[in-house]
Design a protein that fits this description.
26% helix, Thiol Ester Dehydrase, Chain A, 127 residues, alpha+beta, single chain, 5 strands
Length: 127
């Protein structure tokens, strides 16, 4: 499965907040985010999940092929950081063309790739 990278901007996060209805101040107000232990505004966890989903669907070519996605959220994403979604096929049933993939989102911070900030499993139906 190919990778899909995106540098997260405040505009992205604001657009996601408007589309999702999640107007939590952690995603919009640096002062509020700092008051609860973050170094600034963080992206929505589901924003990075949507990025991973886009990567999977781009690889599949058909959004209906993604039948299940389960992910652990392991670390926050700050504005200006780059998230990179990817995955690898763990198993494939040649008769049904169903596959299980290990999927992850890593974080590029200061030119280095950090540990996976999202890790999980996807089940897909291949064409």
């Amino acid at each position: 499965m190919p990778t899909l990278a995106k540098t997260v901007t405040r505009e992205d996060v604001n657009a996601y907040a408007d589309a999702s209805g999640d107007q939590n101040s952690l995603h919009q107000d640096d002062e509020v985010a700092r008051s609860v232990g973050f170094s600034g505004v963080i992206a929505h966890g589901m924003f990075t999940m949507a990025h991973l989903t886009s990567c999977l669907i781009g690889w599949l070519g058909d959004p209906t092929g993604l039948t299940r996605l389960r992910v652990q959220f392991r670390a926050p994403v700050y504005m200006g950081e780059t998230i990179v979604a990817s995955g690898a096929v763990r198993s494939l049933d040649p008769d049904t063309r169903r596959a299980v993939l290990d999927v992850w989102v890593t974080l590029e911070r200061d030119g280095r790739t950090e540990f996976p900030i999202r890790r999980g499993e996807a089940e897909v139906q291949l064409a």
